[in-house]
């Protein structure tokens, strides 16, 4: 792969209550940009939380990365739905908005090597009802599963820090299972739900 790989934006967020379907739920899906270097710990970025540790967070899903290239699709979907067409980075709930790295390019076990930390790809994201609420589209989670525009979770191999604008390199792992193929399994599951 000869593409230029870069972190365009870094986002963190604290768990806060949100009303979804008339019920109060805790969520940290709404992330806001960080302008300074951010410390990376085994449980993720400093200043970031996850509300439901059964599906997000923990060691294997400490950081969530999302390809910036997919934002055009989501902005078009928002315009068609008559909702907010200007989706800033962080709208997908991601910690890292990346450029140059799509789900087809990465496999479980591949590593992202930054100047001061190393992150290993572990799994694709499986969106939930909170994603639908944030995008104001009851089909958003299904669309994410069907398009495969899911992004991926990362395990912290080496702690350190990371900054927006920083370049990184992809170091291949065993390359047995791609994020795209795992996303397809999720797509089939979603279709059968």
Main attributes of the structure:
193 residues, alpha+beta, M1 Pyruvate Kinase, Domain 3, 8-stranded mixed beta sheet, 3-stranded antiparallel beta sheet, 4 helices, disordered C terminus
Summarize this entry quickly.
It is globular and about 45 Å long. An 8-stranded mixed β-sheet has the order 4-1-8-7-11-10-9-13. Strands 6-5-12 form a 3-stranded antiparallel β-sheet, with no helix packed on it.
Explain the overall architecture.
It contains 4 helices and 13 strands. The longest helix has 14 residues, at 179-192. It is globular, with a radius of gyration of 16 Å. Mean pLDDT is 91; it is low at 188-193. The strands form 3 sheets. It has an 8-stranded mixed sheet with strand order 4-1-8-7-11-10-9-13. Helices cover 21% and strands 30% of the residues. It is an alpha+beta fold and 193 residues long. The chain has one domain (6-192): M1 Pyruvate Kinase, Domain 3.
How many angstroms separate the termini?
36 Å
Order of helices and strands: EEEEEEEHEEEHHEEEH
Number of domains: 1
Count helical runs: 4
Strand order of the largest sheet: 4-1-8-7-11-10-9-13
CATH superfamily: PK beta-barrel domain-like
Determine the strand fraction and express it as a percent band: 25-35%
Total strand segments: 13
What summary fits the major beta sheet?
A: 8 strands, mixed
Query: Can you identify the CATH class?
Result: Mainly Beta
Mean pLDDT, rounded to whole units?
91
Instruction: Please state the structural category.
Output: alpha+beta
| Second CATH tier, the architecture | Beta Barrel
